[in-house]
Design goal:
- This protein has 318 residues and is an alpha+beta fold.
- It is globular and about 65 Å long.
- It has 8 helices and 11 strands.
- The structure holds (3R)-3-hydroxy-3-methyl-5-(phosphonooxy)pentanoic acid.
- (3R)-3-hydroxy-3-methyl-5-(phosphonooxy)pentanoic acid (PMV) binds next to helix 4.
Length: 318
Amino acid sequence: MNIKASAPSNIALIKYMGKVDGQGNKPTNPSFSYTLEHLRTFVEIELDANLKHDVWEPLEGTDLFRVELSEKGKERFLNHFIKIKTLFKREKEFYKVKSANNFPSDCGLASSASSFAALTECAVRAFDQDKTLSLNQIADLSRQGSGSSCRSFTGPWVEWNEDGIAKIDLPQKQILHMAIIVEEEKKAISSSEAHKKVSQSLLFNGRPQRAAQRLTNLIKAMKDQDWRKMYEISWSEFWDMHALFETSDPHFSYMHPESLLILRFVEMYWKENNDGPVCTMDAGANIHLLFRTDQKNQLLEFKSFWEKQFKIFVGQNG
Ligand code: PMV
């Protein structure tokens, strides 16, 4: 038996940051993301009668980049696979689990979202042959491996709240995405650690309410096609998350001087042109920019300006 699946990554404009204790990646606030169809993980699983336990291997293939998982990373990935096997009473069977991304894994874009979504999709495809699980149940299963992965099961715009995930129908169907890679190395503080640490910030008080309010405001702005408002809300939201990092006790930081340089450029660009990209940052130093399809020339301006200094990834849905 050889089963294959792939899943996209996603970038949040309203961030999932903070977990409810002991609830398998249940978030303390609702979040909202754009699905990055062009940045995908591919997973293949193969039953192997000679194995005494599941093993992970890099998936080989043209157009695929080799993923290097640490021992801890492998364990986390395989534990999630075992959880799904157990759910379908297949724990006595052992598999080769292979994975790879269609983007380099050492480029600062490697996201647990696409890997866990692809693994969950592949395992469910293999074991749930009667298709008993709904899309929301599959996403919820994936959430237990990596919270943000649950938002990768639909798109382009997805809300994740206490009821699960929901596709939100909005006028901005197609978006041009650009990632400016300021830092390529693995982050010193993983997002799992960040989720725990932010509760030590005094600013964490009121954080779920602020995120929920911004989510309501953002969806309204998008329905009104108010791109500037979308930019302002996304801007204050990622700074809110980074402020939690910087005011935690002890504080920690992902912001690089180069990240700030690009952020100031984005601000200046908006001032000079009365228009510009929506900008956000994850728990990392890299900058994500979203452009409307009629802003293609702006994207090219950003690209030609920054590609001399940084690696840049550009992609589009559809
Ligand atoms: O799913 P995790 O544990 O990797 O959480 C990542 C959370 C952020 O990427 C920082 C924000 C988000 O909502 O994606």
